[in-house]
Amino acid sequence: MSVAGTAVRINWQPRPDKAKLGLVEDGFEFSASDIHAGFLDRETLHRILAAQSAQNIETIRRAAEKTLLERCGDTVRLRGLVEFSNRCVCDCNYCGIRRSNRAVKRYTLSLAEIVECAQWCAAKGYGSLVLQAGERRDEKFAAFVAEAVRAIKAETCSTELPEGLGITLCVGEQSEATYARWFEAGAHRYLLRMESFKPALFAALHPREQTYAARREALATLKRLGYQVGTGVMIGLPGQSLDDLVDDLLAFRDLGVDMIGMGPYIPHVQAPLGGADQIGSAQARLGLSLRMIAAARLLLKNVNIAATTALQALSETGREQGLRFGANVIMPQVTPVRVRSQYTLYDGKPCLDDNAEQCCECLRKRIESVGRRVLYQAWGDSAHFAQRRALAKA
């Protein structure tokens, strides 16, 4: 279907008997035999996202999976997820832990608790973890994160991981000095989601003091400092079009991101974002999210893409489907169960009551059920990052 190391183009074949002017899906179908070296243009990306027929969707899925296997291999990278604090200074309109939500019981794990979670991940061979929290920008928080990163590195060194666990941070917008401080402490990946690359949609999701320009600048700063940079968007937002999602995909490409974490929009009952009555069904948002994963894989080839927990919130097999459509990262929960229910960004979050051991075994079975295998005792860094670093040196 495609050749390793080359781009992919999907040609469309008209179906004259069903062709209707102005409708993207009707009148076209994918032909697996006609995928060849080339590039994915805006029109093709739009048609991938618009696809509805089972035949077209399966062809897209198979092409994305083939690209993944050729460019990244068949392993799934695990990132133990430690949601270490739900205290947040931001007031995002879609978020369950927003500053104004007085119904949330706030918590912050102790340093010892965070290190214990990290040691558990290392013992299970995860190789990496994600430290995620609500946004804070005070010195106490910056110092605490730096101390946690250093402690994790010191306490998780082994023969297999001589530098300790790989660490991804997901703690929002910070100053360049703070980003540099954490990088020097030992964090080497950073996930900062845009939620939408359309300025008007970004503004609808965030309060006025959070600006589109500041978040774009933060992503550029992270890349300049040497982080592996990740971002992502929500899919199926009120007022969001397929053209907006195509713009998101092209923004991933133009920014040269190394990692993508995106998933379906799921409302939270205590968040004020309007338009919940305008969003598609759970099935429709799940399907569109899977096609976004496939489109990102076909467009970007060798980045790391997460099969997010939100996929499983809409379908029991959501994360497995994400893997089959081109994802290669899963973030199993290791947050202590006693606080996990207080970190709900959206309603219906799964795995709130399963302990880390249960999540570990469950995900291993899920991964193996789709013919993939877990990558143990390795950071599982983005192949895209290695490629761009090699190019920079050259």
What is the compact description of this entry?
By secondary structure, this protein is of the alpha/beta class. It has 14 helices and 14 strands.
Helix and strand topology:
Blueprint: E1 9-14, E2 28-36, H1 42-50, H2 54-72, E3 75-78, E4 80-85, H3 111-124, E5 128-133, H4 139-155, E6 166-170, H5 176-185, E7 189-191, H6 199-205, H7 212-225, E8 228-231, E9 234-235, H8 242-255, E10 259-260, E11 263-264, H9 282-300, E12 304-305, H10 309-314, H11 318-324, E13 329-330, H12 337-340, H13 356-369, E14 373-375, H14 383-393
Parallel strand pairs: 3-13, 3-14, 4-5, 5-6, 6-7, 7-8, 8-10, 9-11, 10-12
Antiparallel strand pairs: 1-2
Helix pairs in contact: 1-8, 1-9, 2-9, 3-4, 4-5, 5-7, 8-9
